[in-house]
Amino acid sequence: MTWTQNIAQWRSLPAERKLQIRREAIALDVAQSMAFEREPVDIELIRETLATHARKMPPGSSKPGSEP
User: Fold this and answer.
1) Where are the alpha helices (DSSP H) in 13-63?
2) Which of 44, 50, 43 is nearest to 23 (CA)?
3) Residues with Cβ within 8 Å of residue 35, at least 6 apart in sequence
4) Chain-centre distance for alpha carbon 56
5) Is this prediction's pTM over 0.85?
6) The dihedral formed by the CA atoms of 33, 39, 43 and 47, expressed in degrees to the nearest 10
7) How far apart are CA 11 and CA 52, in angstroms?
8) Are the C-beta atoms of residues 24 and 43 closer than 8 Å to each other?
9) What pLDDT band is residue 38 in, cutting at 50, 70 and 90?
């Protein structure tokens, strides 16, 4: 698969799937960074924390929503 095909495939994904992929990448990046610093952390804990944070965020926003 060429890089142009990869880009076309990414662009064809629904917004929800793109967001999911990006969030999964964050958890992996944090876990790898912590392991590099010899401070390993459970990747599932990071994923749970991100999921909790994501539930508090309005869709498409980078700021927490107001609590009802």
Assistant:
1) 15-36, 43-55
2) 50
3) 41
4) 14
5) no
6) -80
7) 27
8) no
9) confident
